[in-house]
Here is the input.
Amino acid sequence: MSQTAIWWIRRDLRLQDNQALNAALEANQKIIPVFIMDTRLLDSPYASPQRVAFLFDGLRSLQAGLEPRRGRLTLQEGEPVAVLSRLMETSSARMIYAEPDYSPFANRRDRQVEAELPVEWVGSPAIQPPGSVLKSNGEPYIVFTPFSKAWQALPAPGVPAIRSDQPLDTPENLDSLLFPDQPALQEQIPFMAGELEAKQRLNAFVRGAGSPIFEYTQARNQLDQEGTSQLSPYLRFGMISPRRVYSAARQSIQAAKNPADRKAAETWINELIWRDFYIHILHHFPRVRQGNFRMQSVPWLNDISQFTAWKNGETGYPVVDAAMRQLLQTGWMHNRARMITASFLTKDLLIDWRWGERWFMQHLLDGDPASNNGGWQWTAGTGTDAAPYFRIFNPISQGQRHDPKGSFIRRWLPKLASVPDQFIHEPSKMPDEIQRRAGCRIGKDYPAPIIDHHAARERALSAYRQAH
Here is the structure.
């Protein structure tokens, strides 16, 4: 009698280098791929309609990839214990295989499942899974640099041979829901879901002598350039494995023709280690989702009208506003822009970082509880490796440095399209005649600054000293 197993898909929407799927195939003849629509997640206040649509597009792509291997995706809705119990009974499946997850919600959900059903956790959304990078006394690291050194001292994870031709032989008599009607991703969103797209993006970033990875050190902070891999939405849903991405980066280091190229590839790997670090922090310290990792409570002002202006990209600071418009229109934001906008919210406006964290989660295609929380707490000065509280980004000089000609600003703020270069980062300083010629009246076509940065900086320093 052939053995049947359930492959419970969560955030590993891929067929290649999928350790949970590989383990299921090694021990069973028939595999049931199942995705469970859990309304506790889909209707969460942290959910993003765009991210949900990207997820379901990724599931459709996965379904297409399963068909040549005699596999069929089973789509179910409900709480996982009930859904999986019913599916095991109707299919006579003997085991569930799944990749673990590490958010507080995922941990509670998965403990409930393993208390009721036979489940084997295989793989990880991290390159080195939580629990594998610890101090000599068994405690987790809470500072990045020693974590990174310990991480790099571990054996490099291997990418197993890809057996893309092994059939899944999913039973045919299983009920499955239809994909829900989801709003089509807007045309301007620069991401197509799926494993194939993820692999193409990775190859474009790392392959060849002139590949972007070798320009990463200089280009990664420039808002007016495509200097990053933009793989984060695919890593978020496991449309490509982090181990595969890391392996490709290591190959780039080996192919580097000079120290500068090697350094650039190492810098990108460092960002992958940061991603792992935040996954580990969330696993070991789930309280970070609700409050500061360190530092007492900051005396936030939480002005609703200013928060609304920030959300809508109407602060009067072009680089901040352009970044927030990019987020609203595309579901993505450049990492440098994330730091600039987060600093403006938490330091200039003294608004609680949790407000911004939630807003990002409600819009980002790559919205990930670990990375998003880690990034916000870093910028707010409350996290593990927090930026010093006195580090307060100047939104004008940040724009001048990382978008010198204003092309990023003009792309997302068309009202500023004709503003001369000398005023593009401070349009409120344009004389009336130049405003008229540029077709941009401050206070009418584009807002005046909602706050004076220099005064706001002094106010923030005072507030943070109270909490430090």
User: Anything to note?
Assistant: DSSP finds 20 helices and five strands in the chain. The radius of gyration is 24 Å.
